[in-house]
Amino acid sequence: MADEQQKQTETPAADQVNVEQPENVVEPGAENVEVAADATADAEALKEQLALAEAEIADLQKQLAELQPRAQAEIQNMRRRAEQDVEKARKFALEKFAGELLPVVDSLERAIEVCQSEDEATKALKDGVEMTLKLFLDGLGKFNVEPVDPQGQAFNPEHHQAMSLVDAPDAEPNTVVAVMQKGYLLNGRLVRPAMVMVAKG
Question: Name one GO cellular component term (predicted).
């Protein structure tokens, strides 16, 4: 009996025992709470970035919608200008060539004017030159080269070049009374103006 009492006095009570707890012990579930908080913060940041990206996309789509009609109009204008340039190049490619041939026409016309004699030899020559000139003018006509012969017409500064003003009582003022050299057009564009004499006003 005495021994048992002694053991009971030596053994401390459970509530009196000092159990040392480790300093770095993490309560169960604390890590999960921190990870969840970090995930929530990351999700919020991603939501903000997504909202900014969507706003930027909407702004770019709006700008594209505004620019698209303008770009299409610009492309159409460029296409139209290119087509016009090609058409002009096609229509007026022969302009310099036609200009070089016109003195030949002038020479043939002068030869016909000189051959006014009734001599048979001269008459045959004149007929030959006239035929040559006709063939030449027909060839030019196939390429839309047209003569400008404004005899008796009103003076047109776009197609005529006035060499002098003359007194012409029988003609209206500012009328062409004599053509010194014919002019020529290529598809409506002036290749060479007609040299004319104009009645005074």
Answer: cytosol
The H-or-E segment that residue 62 falls in is helix 30-91
pLDDT digit string (tens) for 36-61? 667 788 888 888 899 999 999 998 88
Q: How far apart are CA 84 and CA 77, in angstroms?
A: 10
Reading the block at residue 77, the tokens are 């204008």
* Closest among 171, 137, 141, 136 to 154, alpha carbons compared: 171
The structural architecture, per CATH, of the domain 95-199 is Roll (2.30)
Per-residue pLDDT reduced to its tens digit, 52-98: 999 999 988 888 888 888 888 888 999 999 998 888 888 888 888 99
Sheet holding 183-186, edge to edge: 145-148, 183-186, 189-192
Cα 100 to Cα 103: distance, rounded to the nearest angstrom? 7
